[in-house]
Amino acid sequence: MMKQVFFGVLAVAMLAGPAAAQQKEPSFQGRSLKALIADLKSPSPETRNAAAYSISGIGPAAAPAVPALIQALSDPAASVRYPVCVALREIGPAAIAAEPALKKATDDPSEDVAFMARKALESIHGLRPAYQASAR
């Protein structure tokens, strides 16, 4: 009986191994998340902008991009910082590591970026974001 259980567990593990290896990296319109993360460091603000919007299109599965998005929140171009906030909003709770940078972005000189940073924080924390709760 013990042998049967052992071999049953072993068979399930062996079958699950190849399935797990076949999981594809998240992508958006044919571009892998890894390529989009690399595009966040492009010299072209248009490329960085497009990369951030594309990452937002992946949604919560783009969570591995959070560290790169945090760095991109300090981009000199508001046209990049805004879609970075959109991407963090779409990732949602998995983007919790971005909270300090997003709190800072709520004071961004661009009102649009500041607004979207607040929306991202709301998405990460739900309807009652932590930055509002701590202000009381």
Indicate the percent of residues in helices.
55-70%
How many beta-strand elements? Answer: 2
* Radius of gyration over all CA atoms, rounded: 19 Å
Order of helices and strands: HEEHHHHHHH
Instruction: Tell me the structural class.
Output: mainly alpha
> What's the end-to-end separation, in Å?
62 Å
- Mean pLDDT, as a whole number? 84
Shape: globular
Largest sheet: 2 strands, antiparallel
Oligomer: single chain
Count of DSSP H/I helices: 8
Strand order in space, largest sheet? 1-2
Uncertain regions: pLDDT < 50 for 5+ in a row? Answer: 2-14, 16-21, 128-136
Strand content: under 5%
Please tell me about this protein's structure:
- It is a single chain.
- This protein has helices at residues 2-21, 33-39, 45-58, 66-72, 78-91, 99-105, 111-125, 130-133; strands at residues 27-28, 31-32.
- It has 136 residues and is an all-alpha fold.
Structure, briefly:
The protein has eight helices and two strands, in the order αββααααααα. It has 136 residues and is mostly helical. The relative contact order is 0.10.
What is the strand and helix layout of this fold?
Elements: H1 2-21, E1 27-28, E2 31-32, H2 33-39, H3 45-58, H4 66-72, H5 78-91, H6 99-105, H7 111-125, H8 130-133
Antiparallel strand pairs: 1-2
Helix pairs in contact: 2-3, 3-5, 4-5, 5-7, 6-7
Which key features would you list for this structure?
2 strands, two-stranded antiparallel ribbon, 136 residues, single chain
